[in-house]
Design goal:
alpha/beta, Rossmann fold, 5-stranded antiparallel β-sheet, 29% helix, 20% strand, elongated, MoCofactor_Util/Proc, XdhC_CoxI, XshC-Cox1-family protein, XdhC_Rossmann_dom
């Protein structure tokens, strides 16, 4: 839902009643990930997408039903196969495989929730409106909603919202008591720290509600964009800035030489800084979402910088240079006291092997490695492979999408592990 925050915030301010259908679980090669949403207002206007077009019509009607009844509803959409006759000539077939199925072969679980002041849902609307206002203004918060459990019938808990702020304060409630809210808020803060949206199981016993079973909640995170820190104001940096912005990073370029570190040379950067790289990084406090790209390939710049970076919790640290430069750099870093474990975090030479030569091609190579690092990809060609295309998915024919047990158990801000079945399709 929060991916539509700007428009939905305006709908709230205009007093519109609407319903939002949100992807809460995916399996196989699904087109959209959890958090993707489609909204429908009382006048029939639609906004967003949950599938890229495959099941939009059915989800639209699900939203209309939720608006009319005031009750949340869930639906699972899978592959629809029209089973054409292989001997028949090309042309239309009976039925419409796009109406209710995913032609990509995946599955998605969708939750449709009314956001209205009718049917006694005014408090829920106020919580959702606050979450949308926070996300629309670029603020940090997590919206938690019950999507399954306890048991097979979540009843009145389904869709209830809880807004969790970075300082731990909350608004709203999941309807299962204070213990459930506290457990959900703890999981939400862990996912918020990583800027992730995911379904997690929370609570057992009293916290889990009826039957002592866990409750599954969807945590949608609204957080500032991850940072890309590019050190070295060179031609390669200009291309990487453009690629970083395309991927949604907030990009900073830093170089110790003021004549090169100018906004005129990097107009697409969010920030251009003239400072010694290691001194700049020391003031940045990189976190588990920060990427550091060192393009200077000059020992007086990159060794002090990497000595500092490799001891900070950045998500990605890469350095440009030849293999000979890399070997010399490692030797210098060892003499500076870095351990083999710390050095193992360094991706150098930077980027994936694409045969890149131009700055633009090199930027694509680096961006590809950034994406692979973010999602746990191998960087290998998909052709002829057997691993899932989407690493958070379960394979077709499996038990279906399952939530992670705990974001906190996965290492706080770290990426929660994929289900065990995802590793062996």
């Amino acid at each position: 839902m929060l991916d539509l925050a700007a428009e939905l915030h305006r709908w709230c301010e205009q007093g519109r009643d609407f319903a939002v259908a949100t992807v809460v679980a995916v399996g196989g090669s699904a087109p959209r990930q959890p958090g993707a949403a489609l909204a429908v207002d009382s006048g029939g206007a639609a906004l967003g997408s949950v599938s890229g077009g495959c099941v939009e019509g059915a989800v639209y009607e699900l939203c209309r039903t939720a608006l009319e009844t005031g009750r949340p509803a869930t639906e699972r959409f899978g592959y629809a196969d029209p089973a054409p006759d292989p001997e028949a000539p090309p042309g239309p077939v009976d039925g419409d495989p796009f109406a209710v199925g995913l032609t990509c072969g995946g599955t998605i679980g969708v939750l449709a929730v009314p956001v209205t002041v009718r049917f006694g849902r005014g408090a829920d609307r106020a919580t959702v409106a606050e979450a949308l206002a926070t996300a629309a203004s670029g603020g940090t918060a997590a919206l938690v909603r019950v999507v399954a459990g306890p048991g097979e019938s979540p009843g009145e808990l389904l869709g209830r919202p809880l807004l969790v702020r970075p300082d731990g304060t909350v608004s709203g409630g999941l309807g299962g008591g204070a213990e459930l809210d506290r457990a959900a808020a703890a999981e939400a803060r862990a996912l918020l720290a990583a800027g992730r949206t995911a379904a997690v199981e929370v609570g057992t016993g009293a916290a889990g509600g009826r039957c002592g079973r866990p409750v599954t909640v969807l945590v949608e995170s609204s957080a500032p964009p991850p940072r890309l820190l590019v050190y070295g104001a060179v031609d390669f940096a200009a291309a990487l800035v453009r690629m970083g912005r395309f991927l949604g990073y907030r990009v900073t370029v830093c170089d110790a030489r003021p004549v090169f570190a100018t906004p005129a040379r990097f107009p697409e950067a969010d920030e251009v800084v003239a400072d010694w790289p290691h001194r700049h990084l020391a003031a940045q406090a990189p976190d588990a979402r920060t990427a550091v790209c060192v393009l200077t390939h000059d020992p007086k710049f990159d060794v002090p910088l990497l000595e500092l970076a490799l001891r900070r919790p950045a998500a990605y640290i890469g350095a440009m240079g030849s293999r000979r430069t890399h070997a010399d750099r490692l030797a210098r870093l060892r003499r500076a006291g870095l351990t083999e474990g710390e050095l193992a975090r360094l991706r150098s030479p930077i980027g994936l092997d694409l045969g890149a030569r131009t700055p633009e091609e090199t930027a694509v190579s680096i961006a590809a490695e950034l994406v692979a690092a973010r999602h746990g990809g191998s960087g290998a060609p998909l052709t002829g492979g057997a691993l899932p295309i989407h690493h958070d998915s379960v394979p077709r024919g499996g038990a279906g999408p399952r939530p992670v047990r705990s974001a906190r158990a996965a290492g706080g801000g770290a990426t929660p592990p994929a289900p065990a079945s995802a590793s062996a399709p």
